[in-house]
User: What shape does this take?
Amino acid sequence: MASRKPDMTAFAEAIRSRRRVLDLTQDEIARRIGTTTPYVGHLESGKRHPSERIVVKLADALGMDRGQLFLLANPQAHAIISPPDEDSNRSAWQDFRRDKQLQRIHNISGEEMVLLSRVELMGRVRSPRDFLFILYTVRQALGRET
Assistant: This one.
């Protein structure tokens, strides 16, 4: 039985987006974290999974929260470290909307928050991370750089 790889889309988009916002090249990031430019390219395309050491170095080099970046790189870890949701009526949208740090990390605009609130009206979204997936999909489809 083959092991499942974590979905690296949100992680890849987050680091690529942040690097571009900071106007840094992949080569500059590679030098800052002590690795190669092709490796940074593989991380940004979701082809490689970073070690915890690389996540920490990337977070520091990009000015991102280490814990949030770790969870993006290891989405399966969220279920392990998060307590079970005691309020079954609590929506993923409410959690996402309240997480100002997550919104800052991903440079989510007011216009994008309105769009995501409309997505919630279409049906129940399972987790706040799903809103990030939706957001990055829309950004990519629109060709928006953040």
